[in-house]
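Intended use. Records like the one below are meant for learning the mapping from a protein sequence to its folded structure. Do not use them to infer anything beyond what is encoded.
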Amino acid sequence: MIELYILLIAMLAAALVAIEVKDLLAAAVSLGLVGFSVAIMFILLQAPDLAIVQIVVETLTVVFFAAVILRTTNTDTTIAGRFKPELVFPTVVFGLFGVLFLVLAASVLRELPPFGSPVMLVASQYIALALKQTGAANVVAAIILDYRGYDTLGEATVLFTAVVGVLTIVRKLGRKRNPPDEAGEK
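Structure written out for the chain above:
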């Protein structure tokens, strides 16, 4: 239980760093730390399906943010040939967050059960009764579509919303780059 509190504190600190830091790329990395901490919390709370969705969405979001930031910014003030004392504190903070994240991730991975063994009583019931109760030929499909249908619908809704959001942003960026002709063509 203490891991959840540590992750919550790390998430709040990373969110504050993302708000206060001037470097956009560092802010994107801080937001990624918040999202991956949520994924670790899902694993600790025995919701691996939500953790997988969170990891996929968070990875794509951080990569997309980094690509947009690197493409739209003209100068990079963080890379220089000389030492900048004002960058020492953010570097130390990000290093500490990275070490904390790796320690927590290692502790979560040690607590996972062996592959194939059900963690909860419900999981063993799903495996034992899925084929008989649903008539499906595939146990995984029976669990996802029959027993966990609303959960799967929620995950699909989250993924669909994320894709629509990304497509909306990309389309607006494309329209800004290609202004209409003076002749009135769109």
